[in-house]
Amino acid sequence: MASVSLNNVVKSYGKVEVIHGVDLEVVDGEFLVLVGPSGCGKSTLLRMIAGLEEITDGTISIGDRIVNDVPASQRNLSMVFQSYALYPHMSVRKNLAFGLTNLKMPKPEIKRRVTEAAKVLQIEELLERKPRQLSGGQKQRVAIGRAIVREPQLFLFDEPLSNLDAELRVQMRVELADMYHRLGTTMIYVTHDQVEAMTMATRIVVLRDGIIEQVGTPFELYNFPQNKFVATFIGSPKMNMFEATVDGIGAVLPDFGTLALHVDDTWATKISVGIRPEQFALNGSGETSSTGTITLVEYLGSEVYLYVKLPSGHVVLARDNGKATHKAGDSITLSITASQAHYYGENGLRMPLFDEANS
Amino acid sequence: MLKFLRKNGPGYLFLVPWFIGFIALALGPILVSLYLAFTKYDIFSPPEWIGLENFEFMFLYDDRFLNSLQVTFTFVFLSVPGKLVFALIVAMVLDKGIRGIGFYRALFYLPSILGGSIAVAILWRQLFDYDGIVNAVLAKVGIQGPYWLNDPDYALYTLIILAMWQFGSPMLIFLAGLRSISPELYEAAEMDGTSKFKQFYAITIPLLAPVIFFNLVLQMIDAFKTFSSAFVISGGSGAPVDSLNFITLYLYNEAFTFFRMGYASALAWVLLVIIAIFTGIAFYSSRYWVYYENERD
Fold first, then answer.
1. Among all residues of chain B, which has the CA nearest to that of A98?
2. Quick one: closest CA in A to B205, which residue?
3. Largest CA-CA distance found in chain B, in angstroms, rounded
4. Who contacts A285 (Cβ-Cβ below 8 Å, separation ≥6)?
5. Of A72, A78, A83, Cβ closest to residue B190
6. Where are the domains of chain B?
7. What is the mean pLDDT of residues B64-83?
8. What is the pLDDT of residues B166-188, one digit of tens each?
9. Rounded Cα distance, A168 and A188, in Å
10. Chain B partners of A99 at a C-beta cutoff of 8 Å?
11. Domains in chain A, CATH or no CATH each
């Protein structure tokens, strides 16, 4: 196991800077997920930790050792690639053993590790097959097996589940989480799928355009997003945003009227108010409400999502339980409670409400 | 029948010119040459059936034929591996994503376009002439170059160098093959601490094997059929001392210098069989060293 420390890490390709001075501490034994939209630099960051990309500036340490100039093979880490990167001409057994033969490891030890990994990943009967004879899920298991046999101090995953179908992805997610709990090794995992991030991570790093937007536990990110980007990026379906103005009493929202709240008046008069779909009270009580028309109903079994067109024309998304019998064209009243909403200033940062600031 | 013709007639009509061309220019001459291989024929008098006599003479009494086989085999077995190795090395260098790769690709491919032409063979002749540039350069470093093209010990090797210089086409195919190997495989190997040399023989070569095989077969067939460069450089005779008397050149002279059409046809068919045998061996051996990623099990 190992901790990883990134200190003012910069990456440029020619004159284009893609990672802008990232500072990050990965705690020994944690499952850290890097998440962000395409092109945010998460894979680049992972590849710099792996040693597959040189860093332009700053330092990367694994354990107590600065590894800026240490070749990938000597960083004592394993990486699982998005495309699995299995050698197509080698059997599963040879794929698993390939890296170990480079270490000049005795044959019995290689055999022991391969057998053990195959057993753990339930791929024993596949050992003599070639990758082309495997399904996507099996290939992924072999790729993970290849990482395990090296018994590294750090695992890196680069979108390992994105080539799998939805059902397999869920299954592999559980297996990876299980593997993490069993091995207890530090893991850094890159994904653009925030459901993966939320379900697997001990901590999540949200990246955008080469900078870290927020680092926190899934709970912190969901309930206390520090800026508008994180608020709308984390959560599926995403948070509803309203542009509001602040007056002496509180925030005035279109359609809903005034939400009474203690806003620090040094902040701008124009703010954004975010409400997650489950934070609307439907046909019930709230501090302020608005009645709109349902334009679309998405029934998911245990819950139902409603697209509601408000009088201003603004369409919001609300959630109800699966037993509700809504249909398009119905009218519905949505209510908001001030304490459940999220508030962001013109600069996009979370507004320090008095209640939170004093807590 | 009428319905069939109405439906497919125009299609077949469009095929007619091709069929005429194929029968008149390909299938016809092939069959005629097969027949002529068993005859004595000098164009001026009708062919005379002599059975296997042409082949008997060829293998039992014709030293020039046996020599031409030796020349051709030496050429094939040296120029083909040489050309493939050279092409692979250049392709690997170009695959590194150097600046101006398009320019270099065109530059290296150029000899292949010109290579088959008479002009290049003439140029080669000038280069390797006793007073040519090659000897002039050697003289600068104090080496007295030989009579490259007039010395039977060197002439064939000069031609082999010419063939290797025309590496552009296999190089481009290698380059395409190298490009199709996922960079992640090398990254995974690098993380496993695999040396560059091991990456080459344990990853690049096996994954490039189908392309190597394709190039090998194509270049081998091409090398067996080498004619124009030998013709130009030897002045059409296979000189010096028959050292450039390739089987193609020999059969050409038998046919069009000595008008022994029957014997020339027999030579052509023997060449075809030789090419078929070596292609067959290549295909047979490929099952042991060529791995196809998309092969059906």
1. B192
2. A89
3. 83
4. A335
5. A72
6. 55-289
7. 96
8. 888 899 999 999 999 999 999 99
9. 21
10. 191-194
11. 4-229 (3.40.50.300), 240-358 (2.40.50.140)
Give chain A's mean pLDDT. 90
Cross-chain Cβ contact B191/A50 below 8 Å: yes
Q: What's the gap in Å between the CA of B158 and the closest CA on chain A?
A: 39
- Flag residues of chain A having pLDDT under 70: 1, 262-268, 353-359
Interface probe for A, chosen from B191, B204, B287 (most Cβ of A below 10 Å), is B191
Instruction: Measure CB to CB from residue A87 to each of B190, B191, B203 and give the nearest one.
Output: B203
ipTM passes above 0.90: no
User: Which one-letter DSSP state was computed for residue B202?
Assistant: I
Q: What is the mean pLDDT of residues B220-225?
A: 95
Preferred mutation among B181, B182, B192, B292 to probe A, highest tally of A CBs within 10 A = B192
- What's the rounded Cα separation, in Å, for the pair A352 and A345? 9
Contact B125, B231 (CB under 8 A): no
Alpha-carbon distance B40 to nearest alpha carbon in chain A (angstroms):
54
* pLDDT for position A22: 94
What is the model's pTM? 0.82
pLDDT of residue B115: 56
Task: CATH number for B55-289: choose from 2.10.109.10, 1.10.730.10, 3.40.50.720, 1.10.3720.10.
Answer: 1.10.3720.10
Q: How far apart are CA B76 and CA B78, in angstroms?
A: 6
Put simply, the answer to whether B191 touches A79 (Cβ < 8 Å) is yes
